[in-house]
Design brief:
This protein is of the alpha/beta class and 417 residues long. Helix content is 49%, strand content 19%.
């Protein structure tokens, strides 16, 4: 094997001529391996933005170096000329090189490795391993995501989507995210939590593709419903079952707190004390109850029918969404009748709320769509935020979200299937 081909293979570069390799000492007295390279003729004089052929402009600022993956403990650099070309569309830019992305000082292999690592480990650990700063790692993630997102249009073929918001920082800082139900992937995210933010998604999606949407799942946020009805009126909005049952759980807990307060005012402090610690027995699903919690529920059934009725109303609403379809619709009608005449103010109010969202809830029962995939993405983003001890900007979190949940994480160099 010729030495040039050997070095090209070891460096993991393509369309590149390796002219020489030498061991040098950098400014800090460390040994570094420097490979002097140039693009092959077919890759020379190309615009770094559109890859089209362009006329030469000047020699730029001289030779540059790009950091490559280390050889063992020795840092490796690629060194080459960096001339500029005059592109008809993008003006005067530095010519493209086949081993690195535009405006990057690292090779494709180095950046793809860093992006893969940061998708599976904290950025500080990745920075320590690769001997760069965590800010450099953040910049690499942004470039890799932008590059890979430009290769495919992830908004093509959307039929069923889920929309939700997530707080990413204290001070009511929110992101709005859109997830494809069919693939489970995050397809869009942006800062903000209002109708204009959702409309910005539909601006990117375009009217033709918006017209192809069949179902949109969301919680009870009217600003989401308004934007969807405005831009995709044919899409059926499905109210997330988890959030609907959560309304009943909140109402049940409000009944419990009111009951405890009433018992204290009436002087029955012992029963008030017993009910104060029953929250988890009341809000948990029956299948998840411990033996002691089942005993607690039996005691509530004997001593406080008012609170136990509220518990049954919560469980019956959960059974509505488990049944689905026409059976679920029938159960929902019975539940609304029961809740309206139960004389429990919290559930009377809840019945009025559910009546207001009744068409959306019926869509959920008919089509079985929930925000489960969206909530899974939200949980993942919270884990990312906790692992990174927060992000300085929403753009950094969005880039990480697209890397880990949007299908944009690259394969490790040399590991593609």
């Amino acid at each position: 094997m010729r030495s040039a081909r050997l070095w090209r293979t070891l460096l993991g570069v393509e369309h590149t001529v390796v002219k020489s390799v030498s061991l040098e000492t950098d400014r800090r007295g460390r040994d570094v391996l420097v490979a002097r390279v140039r693009p092959t003729r077919s890759r020379q004089r190309r615009c770094s933005r559109c890859s089209r052929r362009a006329r030469p402009y000047d020699h730029g600022n001289g030779r540059r170096r790009w950091r490559s993956l280390d050889f063992g403990t020795i840092r490796v650099y690629l060194e080459a000329d960096a001339p500029r070309v005059a592109c008809p569309d993008h003006g005067v830019v530095v010519a493209a090189v086949p081993w690195a992305r535009p405006a990057s000082r690292f090779t494709h292999g180095f950046e793809d490795t860093a992006a893969w690592l940061v998708a599976h480990a904290p950025a500080t650990a990745v920075a320590e391993l690769l001997r760069v700063t965590w800010r450099t790692v953040t910049g690499i993630v942004t470039r890799v995501v932008a590059d890979r997102a430009g290769e495919t249009d992830r908004l093509t073929g959307l039929r069923r989507i889920g929309i939700d918001e997530i707080a990413h920082r204290r001070g009511h800082r929110y992101l709005t995210i859109v997830v494809d139900h069919d693939t489970g992937r995050l397809v869009w995210a942006a800062p903000g939590r209002n109708a204009d933010t959702v409309r910005a998604f539909f601006d990117v999606l375009g009217p033709d593709r918006a017209g192809q949407l069949a179902h949109v799942s969301a919680d009870g946020a009217e600003w989401i419903h308004t934007a969807v009805r405005d831009r995709a009126p044919q899409a059926l909005i499905c109210l997330d079952a988890f959030h609907t049952v959560a309304w009943a759980t909140d109402a049940l807990d409000a009944v419990r707190r009111t009951t405890v307060a009433d018992l204290r005012r009436s002087g029955d402090t012992d029963q008030a004390k017993d009910l104060k610690g029953t929250r988890w027995a009341l809000v948990k699903n029956p299948d998840d109850l411990t033996g002691d919690q089942r005993t607690t529920l039996s005691g509530i059934k004997r001593t406080n029918r008012h609170l136990y009725t509220a518990y049954l109303l919560k469980e019956q609403l959960r059974a509505v969404f488990e049944a689905k379809g026409q059976h679920g619709r029938a159960l929902l009608g019975g539940w609304l009748s029961w809740a309206r005449r139960c004389r429990i103010p919290e559930f009377v109010d809840l019945a009025a709320t559910i009546t207001r969202y009744l068409p959306l809830i019926r869509n959920t029962l008919d089509h079985g769509l929930s925000n489960a995939r969206v909530e899974a993405t939200n949980t993942h983003l919270r884990a990312l935020t906790k692992r990174a001890n927060g992000f300085h900007s929403p753009d950094a979190l969005i880039a990480m979200a697209h890397l880990t949940r949007g299908g944009l994480c690259p394969d490790l160099p040399g590991r593609a299937a």
